[in-house]
């Protein structure tokens, strides 16, 4: 390596201008459109700003307010709960669906397509359909009535006890298909010879799954985990379209709370501080995972 | 080679992570792009009237103005949610649109006191505006500078709407006061009808504020109401508690789905006779089928304390202009035109026709409903706008949370009002 490096050094220092342009122009665009606004966001989180007057510097005031803000606490707990429920269930159900649908049988393509179809739809459109189903005289209540469970009828989105879970279901409905496709691709990559060898050794189905399938899916798990964490923390559209974080903040996530403080209450400083918290959470989870993953790969 | 691969990976990992985070936070600080033309050119009218009917009316209005010669105008219709969140950005940008559809009173005042609105004193002296009522003159004057900053063009009213045929079928009449109102509710409930529809679910939780507004102006008066909304009283005061004590008397008669369905669905329930009546603004008639319009009637929100001067809720709509407009002459020409009787009649003819013109000589739709509505407002001792218009759009979500919470958990009203005061304080103190 060192030898090759020194013989090529003279050429390497003269970078062709085209290459330089290819690197610098996107970097400049990125810096202007992404890094600069992001830095501004960090600055704004230290201010009190209504969007009209000049921002007023308040130091860490926004963050200390957060500590005493009960809505922030609800939103943070809900976000963690969302990560666990939405993330955990979509991984488990996605893997389950992939295992069920991995064998090439007649009609399996139809089921795969059906499960993947929700991913294609816009989440806001999906949410509108679910909203209609959740209405007091909507499909779900009518079905409950029809099968004699009328006492279970509910204003699903308007009740603080059910709103949060009622919002998770459509999000999950969509995510399962996505995760399933990732796992299906992973399962295709498993060498069938491994299963044959296991069968010859007399391994049970469970043992095959535990000792062949799961270890072979390690690299896919990395992708699934990143996708789930990112998708959980940025979940906004489905909650906003269905409940706007309501009723009285019971389905509030950090993302919806950030939006409503910034753009409804026009407290842009506090909203930016919430955005910084979301960033730190996402960055923390993803970075720690990536660092570990790359260390293992090396 | 492995060393090279690892370092490239690390670089990708780091830059990827940074990029993700930056994207997450960038949505808050995106530098706003100034819309609006260069100086010279047509006067831009930024409109949030994006419903098809209202948008067409506005287009015809602008076309009529352009035909009249003089200055030229360009209509720019923006989705109302975008308009609301972008308005501060428009007004503070260096090259703003000239005229905006918006509300007078404290909402306009929040911009006027930061010197963002154009001084319109001279056109208020012109014939188009000189005949306007004193109440409107007061409403459009900035309390901080004493200058006129707003041109009102129409208003509408809120009332307890019902279907005449249904009231006849149930054998009930309009109540004259609060006790008769409660009796009426009782009678309707015994007939298996949900007496009071609400529609504070979905994306219209603000409808519940109408009940708070009316109960407060009936129990404590309009002056107290406005002061409360301006932060001069507290939401955990005993006066406010009294409002909810009164509400408690009517709450058992509310449609149990009141906070689960948006007002459009609640309107349907009212028209289909599943609910008896509904406190709502005339805008709901836009979506009502034509054959139901003639069957609609309303009564005044019942008087609770006869000693309190009668106030009614009549939100006024109109326009203000940016102080940074580079076409002030054209702006004033267009605003004078919009304030005239001819323009207001043209607008009402093309829209649903349940609004009332602000010009004293402009003719309204003339239906019995509109005549009755006009009489209601003209006989009122005082006029309020609506919760958000009498305070700010930023305060509205605090009311939505508190009122929806109250309707679901009425026993927790004490802690609800404490929380309301705390969140309102954060808005007032900015």
TrEMBL record, chain A:
This is Carbohydrate ABC transporter membrane protein 1, CUT1 family. It is found in: Cell membrane. Residues 76-291 form the ABC transmembrane type-1 domain. Belongs to the binding-protein-dependent transport system permease family. InterPro entries: ABC_transporter_permease, MetI-like, MetI-like_sf. CDD domains: TM_PBP2 (cd06261). The keyword Cytoplasm does not apply. Keywords: Cell membrane, Membrane, Transmembrane, Transmembrane helix, Transport. It is a multi-pass membrane protein. GO terms for cellular component: plasma membrane. Pfam families: BPD_transp_1.
TrEMBL record, chain B:
InterPro entries: Bact_solute-bd_prot1, SBP, TAT_signal. Gene3D superfamilies: Periplasmic binding protein-like II. This is Carbohydrate ABC transporter substrate-binding protein, CUT1 family. It comes from Actinacidiphila glaucinigra. The lineage of its organism: Bacteria, Bacillati, Actinomycetota, Actinomycetes, Kitasatosporales.
């Amino acid at each position: 390596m060192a030898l090759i490096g020194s013989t090529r050094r003279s050429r390497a220092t003269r970078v062709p201008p085209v290459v330089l342009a290819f690197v610098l122009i996107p970097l400049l665009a990125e810096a202007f459109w992404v890094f600069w606004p992001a830095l501004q966001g960090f600055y704004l989180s230290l201010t009190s700003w209504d969007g009209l007057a000049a921002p007023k510097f308040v130091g860490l005031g926004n963050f200390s307010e957060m500590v005493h803000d009960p809505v922030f606490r609800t939103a943070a707990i809900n976000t963690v709960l969302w990560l666990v429920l939405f993330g955990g269930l979509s991984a488990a159900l996605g893997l389950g669906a992939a295992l069920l649908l991995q064998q090439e049988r007649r009609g399996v393509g139809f089921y795969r397509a059906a499960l993947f179809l929700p991913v294609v739809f816009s989440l806001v459109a999906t949410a509108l359909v679910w909203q209609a189903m959740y209405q007091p005289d909507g499909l779900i209540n009518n079905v409950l009535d029809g099968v004699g469970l009328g006492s279970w009828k509910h204003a699903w989105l308007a009740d603080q006890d059910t709103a949060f879970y009622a919002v998770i279901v459509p999000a999950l409905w969509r995510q399962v298909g996505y995760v399933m496709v990732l796992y299906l691709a992973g399962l295709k990559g498993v060498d069938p010879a491994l299963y044959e060898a296991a069968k010859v050794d007399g391994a049970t189905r469970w043992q095959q799954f535990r000792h062949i399938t799961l270890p072979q899916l390690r690299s896919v798990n990395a992708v699934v985990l990143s996708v789930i964490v990112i998708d959980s923390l940025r979940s906004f559209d489905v909650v906003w379209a269905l409940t706007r974080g309501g009723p009285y903040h019971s389905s509030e996530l950090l993302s919806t709370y950030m939006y409503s403080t910034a753009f409804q209450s026009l407290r842009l400083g506090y909203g930016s501080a919430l955005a910084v918290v979301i960033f730190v959470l996402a960055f923390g989870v993803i970075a720690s995972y990536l660092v570990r993953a790359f260390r293992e790969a090396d | 080679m492995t060393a090279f691969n690892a370092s490239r990976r690390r670089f990708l990992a780091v830059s990827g992570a940074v990029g993700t985070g930056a994207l997450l936070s960038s949505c808050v600080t995106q530098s706003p792009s100034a819309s609006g033309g260069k100086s010279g050119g047509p006067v831009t009218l930024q409109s949030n009237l994006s419903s098809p009917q209202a948008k067409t009316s506005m287009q015809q209005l602008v076309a009529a103005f352009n035909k009249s010669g003089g200055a030229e105008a360009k209509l720019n219709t923006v989705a109302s949610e975008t308009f609301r969140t972008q308005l501060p950005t428009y007004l503070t940008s260096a090259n703003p649109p000239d005229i905006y559809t918006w509300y007078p009173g404290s909402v306009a005042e929040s911009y006027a006191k930061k010197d963002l609105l154009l001084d319109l004193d001279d056109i208020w002296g012109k014939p188009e505006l000189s005949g306007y009522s004193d109440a409107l003159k007061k409403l459009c004057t900035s309390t901080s500078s004493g200058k006129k900053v707003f041109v009102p063009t129409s208003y509408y009213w809120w009332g307890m709407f019902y279907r005449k045929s249904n009231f006849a079928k149930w054998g009930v009449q309009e109540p004259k006061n609060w006790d008769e109102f409660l009796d009426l509710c009782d009678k309707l409930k015994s007939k298996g009808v949900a007496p009071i529809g609400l529609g504070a679910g979905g994306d219209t939780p603000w409808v519940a504020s109408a009940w708070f507004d009316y109960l407060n102006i009936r129990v404590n008066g309009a002056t107290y109401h406005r002061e409360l909304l301006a932060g001069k009283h507290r939401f955990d005061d005993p006066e406010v508690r009294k409002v909810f004590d009164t509400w408690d008397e009517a709450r058992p008669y509310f449609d149990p789905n009141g906070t689960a369905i948006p007002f459009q669905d609640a309107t349907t329930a009212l028209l289909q006779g599943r609910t008896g009546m509904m406190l709502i603004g005339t805008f709901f008639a836009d979506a009502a089928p034509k054959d139901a319009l003639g069957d609609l009637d309303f009564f005044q929100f019942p008087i609770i304390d006869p000693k309190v001067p009668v106030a009614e809720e009549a939100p006024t709509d109109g326009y203000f202009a940016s102080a940074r407009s580079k076409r002030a002459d054209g702006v004033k020409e267009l605003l004078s035109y919009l304030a005239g009787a001819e323009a207001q009649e043209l607008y009402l003819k093309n829209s649903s026709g349940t609004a009332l013109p602000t010009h004293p000589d402009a003719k309204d739709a003339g239906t019995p409903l509109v005549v009755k509505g006009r009489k209601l407002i003209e006989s009122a001792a005082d006029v309020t706008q609506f919760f958000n218009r009498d305070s700010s759009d930023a305060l509205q979500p605090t009311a939505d949370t508190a009122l929806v919470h109250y309707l679901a958990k009425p026993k927790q009203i004490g802690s609800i009002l404490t929380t309301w005061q705390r969140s309102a304080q954060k808005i007032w103190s900015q």
